[in-house]
Amino acid sequence: NAGVTQTPKFQVLKTGQSMTLQCAQDMNHEYMSWYRQDPGMGLRLIHYSVGAGITDQGEVPNGYNVSRSTTEDFPLRLLSAAPSQTSVYFCASSRGPNTGELFFGEGSRLTVL
Amino acid sequence: AQSVTQLDSHVSVSEGTPVLLRCNYSSSYSPSLFWYVQHPNKGLQLLLKYTSAATLVKGINGFEAEFKKSETSFHLTKPSAHMSDAAEYFCVVSDRASGTYKYIFGTGTRLKVLA
Q1: pLDDT, average across residues A17-21
Q2: Considering only CB atoms, which chain B residues are within 8 Å of A59?
């Protein structure tokens, strides 16, 4: 059972480049989300989705786009990378708030030069 | 809006002594609360969860937490620390306040276990 799969695990970008972090889950979870983890700041919510076609902003959405065309996939797009976006990114899914815990991917370490 | 405050950024204990990691939350509705652990350069693992059932929740590896609504707290405890408990711990709150569906993390507590 794969759970939550994130790719790539590591990526180095130059300022201004674009990229997409991929996230897929095979648990039929309606809820999916993206977090970034920075030292001393915990995990901060970027965007989340409660089902296919429905997305909403989290705590730190600026500079990131998401879409949810299927239940399984929830990609995170950086349109024009900035050094401030250097971070570790986690995708997570659940049956939904108040009904279940988050299941996490292994993380993607992004460095923007 | 919901929020989480982890009162200590670092906690040091000696092996074999009790562990207390403190968490206070703010939530407009009945929250769900979780504790996650992250070992160095690893992903996040669920320790335990509270979802409006028993207020004393037991988790993996001997950890437990008590939900106290009057104190808006969900502190994590363990009777006897082990070296393998050294990690970062995150308290998480979720609810459906105001039509939002968010899991909000605290800033984390790094636990150090001394031999």
Answers
A1: 97
A2: 104
